[in-house]
Amino acid sequence: FQRETYAANAIVFRAGEAGEAAYVIDQGCVEILLGPEGDQRRVDVLATGAMFGEIALLDGLPRSATVRTLVPTSLIRIERGHVEGLLRQADPVVQYLVKLLLGRVRSARTDGPPLLGLIPQGQDALSELDPSEQLHNAAVRTLSLAQSLSDGIRLGQLEVHYQAIVLLSDHAVAGFEALVRWRHPVLGLISPDEFIPLAEKTGLIHRVGEFVLRQAVADWAQLRPLCQAGTGHIPFMSVNLSAPELCAPGVVQRIQACLEAHQMAPEELHIELTETIIISSVEVVTHVVQGLRNMGVGVALDDFGTGYAGLDYLQTLPFSCLKIDRSFVERLPNGERSVQIVKSALALSDLLGLSTVAEGIEDAATADLLRSLGCTYAQGFHFARPQLCQALIGPGQV
Ligand code: C2E
Ligand code: CA
Ligand code: CA
Ligand code: CA
Description:
With 398 residues, this protein is α/β, with parallel strands linked by helices. The chain is built from 14 helices and 19 strands.
């Protein structure tokens, strides 16, 4: 997304031009003008939060109105290609609704009064064509949150925190998992669960992921000495990768270049993939996982047990590690059934020659139980919370 600023009385676009972008008013207001140049009449005024120009953007027809600013105005510009990408990924119901809506707009254009190609904020003659106001508001919220995430990345508001992964036998630190956070100037620290899905939907995930990988690899020189696990355990840094990142061309080469730039041994990097990644494209996933493994990088199947693809892919993809999801670990104290489930995950992992990390250990009893079941590694608040590199290495040790 791009922000564009206009002075008062500036033309945003003219009737007849190609519609290459839609706009959300970030600040200011615009008027919508109809009619031939020199004899235009104002048919609407739109203010902050309103979107305009999206119909021409979607159906490719020329703009049917001219838009001019009334005061100095800041607009968020949404490119056609971006919207097309979103639509392709959208829920089939959404795709259908958009199609339906466009069909109605087109026929109204030919038999009815001229249409603006706008979704106005208030109710008016076009309201029959509007998606519900709620839908509209949700879209505007998503777009403005995406805009502020995009700004946040540029302004350095992302942080990487590191959570230790320990050996269950003696609680020695074996490695770390890099976990991203967004330090929003107004909203405070925002959890990745809140912005990663948005980042994935809008393509911002590539910038988020690039930042996390670079930061984690750069911090490794300082964190590596904190790993205490003895012989036979290569210290490691784990980094999460989302489906769109994994499917981006050249991902293996980029990871390799990053490792080389910081002289980090490939064996010391683990990439964590969830089962959902795997639904994307078997060929691509297989190719990338194999490429990473060939380079020496470890690949972990994250959140194991939460998706249905796990078992299938454990067989076909050369993972090196399996992470048992917190939801199973959490239920361990509940009795024999949960114990059996974790036991079979451990047996499976063992059979395939993988190392196993149990996630989300919050108390000593669960840690002891997991150790007695034969699990090697653990991660959880009982051992350590995610922390900034500075906090982990302590003051004065930089
Ligand atoms: P995840 O990969 O399963 O990461 C583990 C999550 O469990 C982290 O949440 C961690 O703080 C939390 N956790 C660890 N131990 C405990 C515990 O004992 N109890 C409880 N209740 N929680 C525990 P976090 O940091 O909020 O991250 C959430 C998710 O966001 C991650 O789940 C991961 O899927 C995603 N994520 C985080 N950083 C990145 C990133 O850089 N890139 C991508 N693509 N996704 C990321
Ligand atoms: Ca993870
Ligand atoms: Ca996990
Ligand atoms: Ca998770």
